[in-house]
User: What shape does this take?
Amino acid sequence: MLLTTKEILLPLLAVILVVGPLWILLRKGVNTSNAKTRILAQISIFAGVFLVTLLFQAHSFTALAEEATTTAATGDLAKGLGFIAAAISVAASCLGAGWAVASAAPAAIGAVSENGDNFGRAIIFVALGEGVAIYGLLISILIINAL
Assistant: This one.
């Protein structure tokens, strides 16, 4: 199944519209007179892109809803337990990552505040804790693909 031109260009346009003002902001610098206006413009652009994307994909939602009603009766216990397993893997990994970051981040901040050269070594421990959440998400994707 090939993607249509609209399905290719719409996400690309959304990324450009959301990231573009940030690039301009970083290029020109931030000062007190333009920061508030630029942040409000960024939020407005994001909301606009979201609504346009939602409107362009509205027909897909109805097609998915019709398909779901026809296949809802054919679901079985194994699929339900598979989805529960995917949810548990994400939930447990996120809780573990939160716990790891909560215990490593204060120590990293303390090490960096004492010596600024320790930033590279300190950030590794925080990133390792966040990696646990990504592994849980990967496992849930593998579980859902197997269903």
